[in-house]
Amino acid sequence: MKTILVVDDERNIVDLVRLYLEQSGFAVIAAADGETALAMHARHDPDLVILDLMLPRVDGLEVCREIRRRGQTPVVMLTARSDDIDTIVGLELGADDYVTKPFNPRALVARVKAILRRSEGDRRSTRPIEVGDLRIDLRRRVATIGERRLVLRPRELDLLAALARDPGVVLTRDALLETVWGTDFPGETRTVDVHVAEVRKQLGGTGPSIETVRGYGYRLVPGPAPAAGA
């Protein structure tokens, strides 16, 4: 049985999420503030954390930062605001997904299942993927270009791997959502765009690049992106 840590200072939200998660076969533990959440994370080593952004004592962004420092526990952030900056900061700190309040609890459970399924798949042994100087070792969760190691968050590595498996082939945003986040992931395609932008920063201009096919999706090309105006 998978254990989910739910962190929120609103008791009614914790009770609602607990109800739906337990009905889906998960064990649930809960915390009402960031300090307690970190202590419970260390004590119970949960399989996934659902984390409110606005928390007393230690806020959700700091809790996420500390969880990511400790390891790769998947994190779904809850936020009462839909500002782009909240989304971007959360993703940059290593959150796997975010949900804006108010939310559909069934959709939240679907996201949890998709992330856990993908996380389990990440642990399966697989051959390294190579495209030019790019090498992706999913078993070790490492991507390199030559001797340079790329600094990628979990979903960014999975996104790059999905594109690198078929270099030159265009994948739609919906296809990437299904491959990387799971078939029952109810999120928006903008999630893909945010992650692609971060992967491009890491690729730089020395190896394969991600090319946008306007109105369709993305593909990985073996060489670096052409200079502006070329």
Which descriptors apply to this entry?
230 residues, alpha/beta, Rossmann fold, Arc Repressor Mutant, subunit A, 2 domains, five-stranded parallel β-sheet, four-stranded antiparallel β-sheet, 8 helices, 21% strand
Structural description of this entry:
Helix 1 (11-23) links the parallel strand 1 (3-7) and strand 2 (27-31). The longest helix is centred in the middle third of the chain and has 18 residues, at 105-122. Helix 2 packs parallel to helix 3 (60-70), helix 6 packs across helix 7 and helix 6 packs across helix 8. Helices cover 42% and strands 21% of the residues. The mean pLDDT is 86. The protein has a 5-stranded parallel beta sheet with strand order 2-1-3-4-5, with helices on both faces. A 4-stranded antiparallel beta sheet has the order 6-7-8-9, with helices on one face. The chain folds into 2 domains: 3-122, Response regulator (Rossmann fold, 3-Layer(aba) Sandwich), CATH 3.40.50.2300; 129-221, Winged helix-like DNA-binding domain superfamily/Winged helix DNA-binding domain (Arc Repressor Mutant, subunit A, Orthogonal Bundle). It is built from 8 helices and 12 strands. It is of the alpha/beta class. It is elongated and about 50 Å long.
